[in-house]
């Protein structure tokens, strides 16, 4: 941010108020007329233009608006009023041992079989339930969270100073999901205001808004093209958006119930959708595998049990994916045709009980973690499906869990009471 402020502060007011004047030749008898800005008669228009976030206000405009020209701090203009800067997003204030692990990925992942032993950090800030969390893939000290209190928070988890680095208040309703871009400098969020919003985290600007005719419940970036993302909503519509144009590339419609989750397969040529089937008897539409380019379902009879699945996740390396079932277990499927359910293996010990409980794989895919309605994280061995460990997080339902992208023994969780916890 200091670099940005310096870049904006190099030019003086006089340099930006008017264009460069032509040099007068010594023999010129008709010097060019001085530049005069066009008159502004509509003060309300001037006030509207000057209120745009980040817009430069010249000395003449400040005089018309009655602003004291001697008080000029360019820094507030760089941050939207919908962003609260509580702390720093830099890693300069991290403890040396954490900083060393984050910068030395090989050392951090020396033992992938480590299991979290206890609570490390418990940042607080949300006043209502937290629906989703995600670690930044490139700035792994940052964790984003989406809350029912209309807020998206960015946490500098191990900072010795203020852990709440950013509070993004662009949504005017509850936020359902949040995802980092692959580059790590942008954040995509969606919610009950029927919009997906792309935020530049460093500058604090909302760069794009994608409006829909439905509550947007889930978003997912394409694994190989960060300019594309999927959105799914309350009317059963799934859309593939192109950030470069701000328009829908493909639409996937099949008279589905509300979309609960979407997940790309490896390579991004197909994706899996999960929809709510509680209001119908068409249970075969609970999980559908779609062809992205042809916009057609490859299979709609993947999971025929009459349970809604609030979460689907693909394995990071193998051709399988799992689905969290309201039947209080996690089912496993092949992600290649014919997309069969494994009838002999499931992950069961935790409870779902109608909550939007999510699950996630570890870095190496050997462990599977799930939230639970009893406020605990449940860890399973992926190959054997055996229960490994239970970690208490809250007195209310644990909604989402996320393994750290660098340190295998760190896992974050969020709960229905608004709490966030990081275990190591």
From TrEMBL:
It comes from the Eukaryota. SUPFAM superfamilies: WD40 repeat-like. InterPro entries: WD40/YVTN_repeat-like_dom_sf (IPR015943), WD40_repeat_CS (IPR019775), WD40_repeat_dom_sf (IPR036322), WD40_rpt (IPR001680), WD_repeat_protein (IPR053053). SMART domains: WD40. Residues 1-39 are annotated as: Disordered. The keyword Repeat applies. WD repeats lie at residues 123-165, 209-251. Signal peptide: none annotated. Residues 29-39 have a biased composition (Pro residues). Keywords: Repeat, WD repeat. The keyword Repeat applies. This is WD repeat-containing protein 25.
